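Section handout, structural biology tutorial.
Before the tutorial, make sure you can parse a SMILES string by hand: atoms, branches in parentheses, ring closures as digits. In the record below the ligand is pyridoxal-5'-phosphate, and the chain has 237 residues. In the tutorial you will relate the predicted structure tokens back to the input. Do not try to memorize them.
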Amino acid sequence: MTENDIKENLSKVLSDLADAAKASGRRPEDVRLCAVSKFHPQEEILAAARAGQVLFGENRVQEAYSKFTELAAIGGDPLELHIIGTLQLNKVKKAVEIASCIQSVDREEVLAEIEKRASALGKSIKILFEMHTGEESKAGYEDEVALYASLENCAKGLYPHVIPSGLMTMAPFTENEVLVRKSFSTLRQLREKIGRDYPSLPVTELSMGMSGDYKLAVEEGSTMVRIGTAIFGPRVM
Ligand SMILES: *Cc1c(COP(=O)(O)O)cnc(C)c1O
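Predicted structure of the complex:
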């Protein structure tokens, strides 16, 4: 992709997002775009940044670490990075160093490790709880019971450096719109339930929607879409 392609793709995605928001009675600024740059080189991240994109998402901590720490060294406006891929415990330290949010928290162990590392760095970090809402997806909390155990520990103050900010999911990869919508509405309903059960926790974000399904996600209440292919094209690295 050339710099110009990326710029055009980005503005197309942003205007589609704005349209989808307005069509469902929401404000465009209520849906944030996370540009997923995994498997794309630094030049492409820089191209998107020059076109005004600030927030990026990466799956793999090692890849993100090498790309984004160098970008930080180059200077320019600081970019914001979210980790969106399943985390092994031994990657948590680096993830906490470079990211402002870890969207893919899928078990208590990871939560505890994030607290340990964030506390050592004297940093607070946002996290999203990843849920599986579609049959095929294996990522995410095993079930609601496991999620609630984590929420309970957050509410008890066990993780003072962790800010539980919302939920994340991936819809099933299917053409069946009904199933995709169901996955998104399931996540929204879960957030509403958590809001009632734990009003003290700031669980507000709904990270849902990718290149193939982001319009549906916005209609179902997404507050953040994670879009790679529609901006950067097929993954190359
Ligand atoms: C790769 C990835 C995306 C972006 O997918 P596209 O279909 O390229 O937009 C979003 N979320 C997660 C968790 C991903 O791994």
